[in-house]
Sequence to fold (381 residues):
Amino acid sequence: MDFAISEEHRMMVDSVRQFREKELMPLEKEFLLKCNLDTEVRHGLERKGREAGFWALEVPAQYGGLDVGQLAMCLINEELFKHPAMFEFGGSPEPALYLCNDEQKQRFFYPIINGDKHSCYAFTEPDAGSDFARIRTTAVRDGDRWIINGTKTFISYVEGADFVILFTTSNSKAGARGITCFLVEKGTPGFSIVRQIPTMGDNWDPHELLFTDCAVPDANRLGEIDGGFAVADYQLTHGRLKIGAFQLGIAQRSIDMAVEWAKQRTTWGKPIASRQAIQWMLADSEVELEAARLLVYRAGWMADAKQKIRNEAFIAKLYATEMAQRVTDRCLQIFGGLGYTRELPIQSFFRQVRVWRIGHGTAEIHRWMIARNMLGQSSRD
Ligand SMILES: Cc1cc2nc3c(=O)[nH]c(=O)nc-3n(C[C@H](O)[C@H](O)[C@H](O)COP(=O)(O)OP(=O)(O)OC[C@H]3O[C@@H](n4cnc5c(N)ncnc54)[C@H](O)[C@@H]3O)c2cc1C
Fold:
């Protein structure tokens, strides 16, 4: 294993840093008080990113994207996530949408690359989160359409989305092997948004969705009938790598701020930076951040080398999300009472990182999957 951060990578990260400083940092104070970035503001930032050349970054050149690669995307997202608004550049379709057929690409895939549409994805149900095989939103074939009934919960980014990547059961007896995926447009009769779910996060108040006799044409089926698990797995693996990279930026900014504060803040006539208790918190944070960075970059590099990263993405996301929790906790502690206030981003980071030990597969399920790989067990064991 031999990977390096090239000069080109460094220059790219430097331009992302300039974008963050110019466009995102002025929004920080208001964001911390409001605990939210409106969809309109988020889409406006996407447009500004596009003007600055940050658009369709990870999209292969054959579809008109910049094709910067997954390692570069890790570096870019690390830089962006030093801001608590947790903003990502636009124009990149969700991984599952690469499985669109030619006709679907025109309706769903290219409009995202063109900036005309946004999407979100819906697996989770009130009775099925980690245990994906328990999905009970049914899709029943009726000629050249499917009738969908069921409830989805915790669905992020619905407000700004034009369509949902929806996972249903087309054969409930087959469990995970009976899942079929559809692209369901907002406004389709029978598809409604029931309520927003308030959370402890700043950016996220996900939604509950209801599908009642919702008729969706077979032309909107993504992938094979009963083949939805592979679509979900593909979507989640790449999402996990991204989430790993987010943690690096969050931890780096928290550590940078804590170091500066520790040098300034004086107690009993000395800066707190001179106290071993503080130094150990900083040192442990630095070591863990560097370890996470290597895991995330390695997985990004392997993806660029066209190697499978399912297990590496589990490992990177598991370690990085738990690292970010510990690091933001220590950094908040170093700031004392100030760390707890909404005048600093530390408390926002501390609260927000919590979701990533749950979303895209919980830490417990990640450990299970990693152990299963070690033990050579299959998904049926
Ligand atoms: C803010 C937010 C945004 C989200 N956005 C989306 C979204 O956009 N789309 C979407 O589809 N979903 C989304 N989710 C849902 C998320 O993916 C699920 O919450 C997650 O998969 C866990 O499922 P669950 O909540 O049903 O927990 P459960 O599966 O009920 O698990 C509960 C606890 O039991 C543990 N557990 C379960 N099974 C085992 C086992 N076999 N061994 C050991 N421990 C186990 C879990 O690790 C967890 O600690 C979001 C959630 C949140 C909080």
Remarks:
- The chain is about 45% helix and 15% strand.
- The mean pLDDT is 95.
